[in-house]
Structures are given as structure tokens and as C-alpha cells.
């Protein structure tokens, strides 16, 4: 870990989830301003990159030409590519170092460029043009396959040959903190009766990690797997809210539709890929070996601890219902992106690709209520005596993630949301 010795001049930053080794990107509005701009989180502060840009701190020609940090989304910066990302990150780490005077000793610049994190308003960091959701955790796929089909044939024949995915809905990707209204729709609770319309009775969360696409590719020009890392800007936490009863009735033969498209929440801070490189680990052995276009020598699975907290209206604090890890993914993000484009499909800056529910091997590591309550057969017990099989109105869900180094932590922050009652017409 080459940069583990980096320290910041900002008090407390080194021990926080947002040390100088992290520097996640977000879009925010400072207290005394009205226009959103790009910043990075550092300790208890946000560093305002629009101010630094104005002051000429970024010398990379593409950054100078595009001025991406005074924009209301990260899309332009994401499209500039690896060389610009590295130059900016290097400059930010230099400015924030304990042994660099430029920002540390310039009170006027600090006053303009550093905001208390608690004082700013976070915005949706990306204009998500397309959202794709994969299904890449083997434990999750086996659990769901066992519940709805047969434990002996839990995985469909394609599952170990390609990263299964579907095209999600970008318009309903929302920022952490926004409430989620229980969706209404068509279900068939009784298999011997006609379907009915009404509020979903089986509302669920899905714990996922998403990545944002960088420059992307022209149509008809697939991204070879060895080039995929240059197109992965960074990562966030994703709660892919799901209505299991709507999904169960609608999904055959074309897959998820309205059971998924009402809301997908993301965390506000996007952890750059560079910050996660020290946490790469080898994933599960892939047997059978994937086809050549999906074969990769390097490790691109990440050791990121994840957990889910559930707080009902009668509880004082969230109770941890799931602890798992991003390393349980069978398919890597590189394999997902190579597969996504192998047919010539173009992906664009700001496209969101989510992992699919991340479940581990044990019952306390399942990433959805569907699995934790085993389809409602084994309700989850909460402190105070309540139980839950699925989410009820007023329930608050918080997902967190962090990668732990020897002497620092890369925090993802959280993605949170509260369930509001349905309003069916
Ligand atoms: Ca999902």
C-alpha cells in the first residue's frame, strides 16, 4: 500500500472514513451559495473543486478546457478518462497533505474551499443515462433459485457462463435520504384467483454496490476486458428497492419490470477506483472457465465490508440485519463491462452498473429480506420483540460500506431511505 503513509493537515481526517487516501467525489451546494458544484469529502469537510478550478489549481489540459467542477453533475469529469482523473487526484492529495503549505497555510483559500460537511446539501452526483443491474452474487442467485425453483437446479444453465443482467430504469435512481413510497401495482397473491391491483405487500431492499462508467465506447466497438479498468470511474452503495409480489407475477418471460423500476437509491459519495485498488482480492474460482472475452489475469474483486441496518418506527437506532462483503461477487466489474459491450452496445459517462444483491454464504450475510426471512417463513427478529419478513411503512433502511487498510479506512458513507405508505389510485 504505497500511499498508506499519507496524512492530511486537517484534524481528524486520517482516522475518519474519508481520509486523504479516499477522496470520494460528490456534488453539493455550500451553505452560502445556490449553485451545485463538485467536491471531495475529506474528514469532516468537503473540498470545493470549483473554487480550486477557478484558482487554476488543475493543470491537466482536458480539465482546464472542460472546467468540469463547476457543473451540477460529475458526467463531464467522468468522460475525461483515467489520465485526467489521476492528475486531479494527485493534485488533491498534494494540496491536502500535512507537509504541503499551499492550502494548509492559505487562510483565505481554506475559507473559500473548505466547507464543514454537515453544513452542505448533497445533490444527485450524476445524470444517470442508463442503469444496468446485474445478478452476480452466486449465494444470492442460489438462494433465490432454491426458493422459487429447486435447490438442485438453483442456477440457470447460463449463470456460470455470463454475468446475467437486465436493463433497469435510470429515471428513478434517487439520492440517499429521499423517502420511498410503497409502490402500487398488479399482483396475484392467490394462484387460484385472478390478479388484483393494490399496494405491494412484499416490499424489500437489495444491498448492492454500483460503479459508474467513465469515457465509454462508440457503438459497435466492444470494450476488451483488459481495457475495462480505464472505464470504471468509481463506486457507490446501491439499495435496489424491490416489490417481490409485483416482480413474482410480472417477471416471466422478460424479467424484472415494475417490481424494480419505482426507486433505486444511491449513496452521495463516489469512491474513486484508485482508492480501492489496494483492496483488490481474488474472487471465487470460476469453474467452468469463462469464454476468452471474459478471461482476466488480474484480481478485480474488492474486499469491502458491507452491512444493512433496519429501524422500525418504534426503534431508537438501526439494528444490523446483514453483514456481508463485496468480495462474494462471482463475476467482476470488468467482466460485467466487457460482457455488456461485447454485442456492440455503447455505454456512456455516468451510466450506472449495479452488482445485484450481494449475499454471503451464511444466513446473517444475506442482502435482502426475501433471503433473510426465507420468503417470509422465518421472520427476522428485532430488538424490542418486533419481527419483519418484508418492509413495513415507516421502516428505515441504512446500508454502509468500508474497506479497512492497516492504518486507514476507505468509507463509502451510507445509502438510506424510509418507506412511506402507498397512495394507490
Ligand atoms: Ca437488483
Task: Give a description of the structure.
With 425 residues, this protein is an alpha+beta fold. It folds into two domains: 111 residues, Fumarylacetoacetase, N-terminal domain (SH3 type barrels, Roll); 290 residues, Fumarylacetoacetase-like, C-terminal domain (Fumarylacetoacetate hydrolase, domain 2, Alpha-Beta Complex). The chain is built from eleven helices and 26 strands. The strands form seven sheets. Strands 6, 7, 8, 13, 14, 16, 17 and 22 form an eight-stranded mixed β-sheet that branches. Strands 4-3-2-1-5 form a five-stranded antiparallel β-sheet. Strands 9-26-25-20-21 form a five-stranded mixed β-sheet, with no helix packed on it. Strand 25 and strand 26 form a beta hairpin. The mean pLDDT is 97. The structure holds calcium ion. The site of calcium ion has 6 residues, from loops. Calcium ion binds next to loops.
Amino acid at each position: 500500500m504505497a500511499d498508506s503513509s499519507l496524512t492530511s493537515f486537517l484534524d481528524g481526517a486520517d482516522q475518519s472514513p474519508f481520509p486523504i487516501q479516499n477522496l470520494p467525489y460528490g456534488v453539493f451546494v455550500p451553505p452560502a451559495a445556490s449553485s451545485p458544484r463538485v467536491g471531495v469529502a475529506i474528514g469532516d469537510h468537503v473540498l470545493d473543486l470549483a473554487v480550486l478550478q477557478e484558482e487554476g489549481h488543475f493543470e491537466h489540459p482536458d480539465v482546464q478546457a472542460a472546467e468540469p467542477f463547476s457543473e451540477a453533475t460529475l458526467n463531464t469529469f467522468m468522460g475525461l478518462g483515467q489520465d485526467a482523473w489521476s492528475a486531479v487526484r494527485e493534485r488533491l492529495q498534494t494540496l491536502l497533505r500535512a507537509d504541503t503549505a499551499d492550502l494548509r497555510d492559505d487562510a483565505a483559500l481554506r475559507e473559500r474551499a473548505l466547507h464543514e460537511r454537515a453544513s452542505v446539501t448533497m445533490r444527485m452526483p450524476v445524470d444517470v443515462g442508463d442503469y444496468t443491474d446485474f445478478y452476480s452474487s452466486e449465494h444470492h442467485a442460489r438462494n433465490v433459485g432454491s426458493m422459487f425453483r429447486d435447490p438442485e437446479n438453483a442456477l440457470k444453465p447460463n449463470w456460470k457462463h455470463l454475468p446475467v443482467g437486465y436493463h433497469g430504469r435510470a429515471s428513478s435512481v434517487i439520492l440517499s435520504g429521499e423517502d420511498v413510497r410503497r409502490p402500487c401495482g398488479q399482483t396475484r397473491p392467490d394462484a387460484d384467483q385472478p390478479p388484483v391491483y393494490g399496494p405491494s405487500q412484499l416490499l424489500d431492499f437489495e444491498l448492492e454496490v454500483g460503479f459508474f462508467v467513465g469515457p465509454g465506447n462508440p457503438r459497435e466497438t466492444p470494450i476488451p476486458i483488459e481495457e475495462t479498468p480505464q472505464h470504471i470511474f468509481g463506486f457507490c452503495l446501491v439499495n435496489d428497492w424491490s416489490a417481490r409480489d409485483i416482480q413474482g407475477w410480472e417477471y416471466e418471460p422478460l424479467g424484472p419490470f415494475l417490481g424494480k423500476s419505482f426507486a433505486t437509491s444511491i449513496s452521495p459519495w463516489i469512491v474513486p477506483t484508485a482508492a480501492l485498488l489496494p483492496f483488490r482480492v481474488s474472487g471465487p474460482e470460476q469453474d467452468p472457465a469463462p469464454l476468452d472475452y471474459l478471461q482476466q489475469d488480474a484480481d478485480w474483486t474488492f474486499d469491502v465490508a458491507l452491512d444493512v441496518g433496519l429501524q422500525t418506527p418504534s426503534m431508537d437506532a438501526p439494528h444490523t440485519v446483514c453483514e456481508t462483503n463485496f468480495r462474494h461477487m462471482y463475476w467482476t466489474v470488468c467482466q460485467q463491462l466487457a460482457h455488456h459491450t461485447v454485442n456492440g452496445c455503447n455505454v456512456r459517462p455516468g451510466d450506472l452498473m449495479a452488482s445485484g444483491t450481494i449475499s454471503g454464504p451464511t444466513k446473517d450475510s444475506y442482502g435482502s429480506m426475501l433471503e433473510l426471512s426465507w420468503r417470509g417463513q422465518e421472520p427476522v427478529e428485532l430488538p424490542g420483540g418486533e419481527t419483519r419478513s418484508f418492509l413495513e411503512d415507516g421502516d428505515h433502511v441504512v446500508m454502509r460500506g468500508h474497506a479497512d487498510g492497516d492504518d486507514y479506512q476507505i468509507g463509502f458513507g451510507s445509502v438510506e431511505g424510509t418507506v412511506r405508505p402507498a397512495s394507490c389510485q
